[in-house]
Amino acid sequence: MERGGSPVPDPALSAADIRTTFSRMGDTDRDAVALIGGGHAFGKSHGACSVAGAVGLNPREAFEAGDTFAWQGKCGSGALQGKGPNTWTSGFEGPWTTRPTYWDNEFFTSLLDREWEKFIGPGGHYQWRVKNGTEADQGLLRLTSDVALIHDDSYLALVQEFASDLGALDTAFSDAWFKLTHRGGTWSDESFCEHGKVPSWILDQNNNQMLDSDPVVV
């Protein structure tokens, strides 16, 4: 996407953005692919509501308005207003897999086994669906950054590995998730540990510090 412009749903360009973003956090290509696909093994993206300002007030706006809670969705009504099928977050709509409450490697197998086409989803954003999908998979979602993983040689090789070997994904995701959740500078320092100190074996891996390359001038 050009600065100030509209998003460009080009998987090849997105692959370059993914590598830049994850490398700034010290992540390898293996880490990036494992985190994207493993993270999308669960849940769905929400964006089927056409109500203006559907997400509700942000914390600052809610505080100024005297509201107790922020992000009170405006979709739906009654007890389910802003909840469940009426949730609105990113504006993209759909689950990534047919079993979004299970850990598996379907995200990767589906990337390879199906043809994906872009379209404008109900939230008004470009997203991807299975071309000529069946009843079982026609509602599946892929973001441009998901489809990007099969438009880059290094990422594609990892997609193929994880699609054929769930154990490899298990290990790669575990390692990458640990790194992601333990690197963060002062917020992960032992002074912020409520019960005792951060174990030395965690600190020894140097995963509790931000990289020099992390600051980005905006």
SSE order and pairing:
Blueprint: H1 11-24, H2 29-39, E1 44-45, H3 59-64, E2 94-95, H4 106-113, E3 116-120, E4 126-130, H5 144-147, H6 153-164, H7 166-182, H8 200-203
Antiparallel strand pairs: 1-2, 3-4
Helix pairs in contact: 2-6, 2-7, 4-6, 6-7
CATH class of the largest domain: Mainly Alpha
Query: How much helix is in the residues?
Result: 25-40%
Any idea what the CATH architecture of the largest domain is?
Orthogonal Bundle
Quote the beta fraction: 5-15%
Mean pLDDT: 85
Largest sheet: 2 strands, antiparallel
Coarse shape: globular
Tally of strands: 4
Structural class of the helices, strands and pairings?
mainly alpha
H/E order of the elements? HHEHEHEEHHHH
The N- and C-terminal alpha carbons lie at a distance of: 15 Å
According to CATH, what is the topology of the largest domain?
A: Peroxidase, domain 2
| DSSP summary: helix tally | 8
Neighbour order of strands in the largest sheet: 1-2
**How many separate domains?**
2
CATH-wise, what's the superfamily of the largest domain? Peroxidase, domain 2
